[in-house]
Amino acid sequence: MGDLLAQLVPEILGLAVTPAAIVACLLLLGSHRPYRNVAVFGGTVMVVYAVLGAVVLSLGRTAGTQETADPGTVRGWIGLVVGVLFLAVGVLALVRARAAPPGPPSGAEPEVPGWARRLAQPTTRVLVVSAVVLALVNPNVAIFLSGLGMVLTADVTVAEQAAGVLVLVVASVLDYVIPTAFYAATGLPGRRRLTVMRFWLVHHDRAIGAAVLLVFGALFTVRGLVQVLG
Q1: How many helices (H) and strands (E) does the chain have?
Q2: If DSSP codes are grouped into helix, strand and coil, which group holds residue 134?
Q3: pLDDT tens column, 79-117
Q4: What is the per-residue pLDDT across 43-53, written as a single tens digit (0 to 9) for each?
Q5: CA-CA distance, 39 to 194, in Å (whole number)?
Q6: Which residues, other chains included, contact 145 with Cβ-Cβ below 8 Å and sequence gap of 6+?
Q7: 26-84: per-residue pLDDT in tens?
Q8: C-alpha–C-alpha distance, residues 24 and 40, integer Å
Q9: 3-state SS class at 172
Q10: In this structure, what are the phi and psi dihedrals at residue 26, rounded to the nearest 5 degrees?
Q11: Cα separation of 125 and 120, whole Å?
């Protein structure tokens, strides 16, 4: 199990560093019922990934993934595909970020995307729908599936595979747990710092997203190549 967790470190880090999810959490923490809203939103994300993980794990066990191919080769190709995809999307995002018009003057609040504005004072329906969309339409899906591929091809018991999936699911909501814990523990000064962080993340969202994609794209590509060629 320890070896599996070590192999999942890149996926865990990738799932825990999602700029869009962090911005969503910070917006919800500024709403009228912050803890309730974050709990509904993050809980929905967790359910989505838990269901996805259970389905993939069940299908993988049924198909006998461990017996049909060399596990190292399978893991390598999964990581390589994810890495190349991230690099391509990251380069495109970087080009778009450089071509974007200049942002607002220093000190002014940047324009918040439409999906984010709806989280300022959301209804339960908006929270659930937005969480499902964000969970499925972002790079975390590819990272999560890469992690599931690592779990399915690992030489461990079914219980250890289930534990690996659980670790990935928990990692997918760290973007909500950590800012909320900081918000609860630090009082007004900490909450002001979170507001400043939210403005900065929104202002630099394209550049940050591109950087995250490129870093993890390079990491997954190198790891995939080592596993495929080694």
Answers
A1: 12, 0
A2: helix
A3: 888 889 888 988 888 887 676 655 555 555 555 656 666
A4: 999 999 999 99
A5: 18
A6: 56, 78, 82
A7: 889 988 899 999 999 999 999 999 999 999 888 877 765 545 556 667 777 888 888 89
A8: 12
A9: coil
A10: -65, -35
A11: 14
Identity of residue 175: D
Tell me which residue has tokens 């899906």. Answer: 141
> Residue 82: enclosing H or E segment and its boundaries?
helix 71-99
Burial of 182-193, coded b for 16+ CB within 10 Å and e otherwise, reads: ebeeeeeeebee
Task: Tell me which residue of 61, 60, 85 sits closest to 143, measured CA to CA.
Answer: 85
Q: What share of the chain is helix, strand, coil (3-state, %, to 5)?
A: 80, 0, 20
Terminal CA-CA length for the chain: 22
Q: Residue 180 in 3-state DSSP?
A: helix
CA distances from 170 to 85, 94, 175 (A): 24, 29, 10
User: Are 134 and 21 contacting, i.e. CB atoms less than 8 angstroms apart?
Assistant: yes
* Angstrom distance (rounded) from CA 37 to CA 180: 11
